[in-house]
Amino acid sequence: MNGARDDVVPLLCAGCSLGGPEAGGELPPFRLARGETLAVLLPGAGQVDDAGRCLIGLRPPPAGRVALFGEDPARLSDERLLKLRRRLAWAPGSPEFLATVTARENVAIPLRDRMALREQETEERVASMLHRLGVEIPAPALPHQLDAPRRYLAGLARAVLTAPELLIVGEAPFPLPAPALEKVSSLLAALRAAGGPSLLLLSFRELHLRAKADNIVHMPPRRNGPARVEGQPA
Amino acid sequence: MANPVAALGGRALRGAHAALRDALSAGEIFARTLFALRGTSRGARRLALCTASQQIYFTGVQGIPVAGLLAVLLGYGLGQFVGFFGLFAFIPQFLEVLIAYHLAPLIAAIVIVARSAAAVAVELGNMRVAGEIAMLESFGIDPYRHLALPRLLGIVIGTVSLCFVVTAIALVSMMLVVKDHPSVGGSDYLQAIAPRIGLRVAVLGLLYGLAIALVSMRQGLDLVPQYTEVPKAASRAVVKSIVLCALLTGATTLVLGLP
Fold it and tell me: Which CATH class is domain A1-87+167-174+198-234?
């Protein structure tokens, strides 16, 4: 699937104001090429999930234009938008879960939806990914019974498990424990090394980003402020 | 001073407009739910059908004790009524027109409304407010397939089944009350149950199930995403479902007629 349309970049952001007027400045135009890792440094934690929503078409960007795999989510029908989103996965900083099913079931939902795996294989993949991220989630635990770091890691596991072409990872709005941070870093590094998905990191802390990303786009703290791009922006 | 006729007319027009809006929205939910399985993966279909079977259990099976008790009371009361007034000649009419065509399916529908309509509206409403539906959409999961379709199937199949169960229990309950009277033998009583009753009960169950499912899902899915709106949506789902079921009973009688 990755090589199906090599000419189309997974994500193109044309001068977007991602987080709404309160978020501050506009992003410079940027594109995320296939297999590339790009970090967008946002002014604050509050903008991380807002930016994610804008990028995947859950809400229109207040300004500018987003193109996912060559298509503008704001102009697509619901059916085509859902189809487009099945090519990507978003792990927000504050992930939502279905409250009435267990946390492990929640992690498995997109995987079950996208792939017709045997039940045992699905459970094994979920357990393996959670183990890889170093997160212990008892089988009967409901999402509200998890602390914030485990919720964040469960959300990340849910996204990575779907084997997307584009993975958008929002930074947690709280500091992750050092071992968890290390596990996340090594998972993302392993995905890159394996030629995995194009990776977009939405962050508000510059720490660690330099080592992870090919390019960094700085979003200015105020509207119309100067934007900075490090690396080789498109 | 405002003209009361004009005020009444204006109110009626607003009510009709709201009803039309509700009907259009419910129609859209129905269409999107029906076509939700088109072109989806085997895993997605399996997930939807698994949830649907759970909904059938919640709606149909778990409702049997309450609905069954009401059905026993209905049959027993009508049996006592028939015995007290000596209306044995009218037993076929009591069985068919009163129990099978009207009261028993309506009792089943009211139990479903009380148990499931409010629950579905609250559950979907809370999911809308908490961002759970947006989460599903962010993964490309169609909420109409993942949430609406199982509930539609569960409520429709559960309602049809419960209509049959309640009708059967009410008929048997009435039979047990009147069976000892010399003019009513057990076999005569059973012969008075015409086969067409089954078809009518199935039609009523189907209509009630569709109405309850669509009304409750509309209230849950289309609400303004604020927690204060959720209890209002639940209340609206219950009231509108009951009114619609009563109207459907009348409409079915008008269209299909009485024996």
Answer: alpha beta
